[in-house]
Design goal:
Helix content is 66%, strand content 0%. The chain has 244 residues and is mainly α. Helix 6 (121-133) runs parallel beside helix 8 and helix 8 runs antiparallel to helix 9. The longest helix has 39 residues, at 26-64.
Length: 244
Amino acid sequence: MINLVLSLAAGVFAFLAFWRSGLVNPVGSALPGVVAASLAYFLLARRSVRQLEAVMALAQKELAARKLDRAIAIMEGAFPLGRWQFLVASQLHGQIGSLLYVQKKFDEAEPHLRKSFVKMWSARGMLAANQFRKKQYPLMEETFEAAVRANKNESLLYAAYAWCQDKRGERKKAIEILQRGVKENPSDEKLKTLLGRVQNDKRMKLENYGEQWWQFWLENPPQMMGSQGSTGFQPFGGRARFRK
């Protein structure tokens, strides 16, 4: 947000400078104002992204060492940067919520997951899974629907959504969800297999998704990994991706 304000201020300054110079009229002064604002925003946003990438790199090192609490503390320390750039806070919330969730700290994770960016499909899926666990089915459907609309190519999101519906006795809805997933991802064999199983009244088996499935804790993994109840899932890779 601060980046935007500073950029607009730069644009206004450029506009006034050209206008008062007498070289161009007010309409002609608008172009340098827009250019100045755009360039300022680009440079400020890039600076914010680099600052966040440095923070996330530190958190990644702690996560690699399985020091999840330390990784969370590092990310929490980056929240002040959210005042500078849009979506930073929501993405940090998503990462923190995901780390808490995989440790089965569901109550602690939920407030963060609710504030996560909708494009963070894994975090949104965890939120929906927790709502399923609490039997908050209308909320669960609302969360899953928003996540699917924003992440149409995420196979597991459709699969988890359908699994939850099937598990609560809504097999027809589960079939419809999988059909939508197959339509959006016609080459996805996992979704096709799941759709065939549900249509033939067979149990949905999501084991082929591996740790990405177990991270939701909708089923217990066949063999526990880690000492803190974590499935070994890492919610972010080596490079943070924050939107400019």
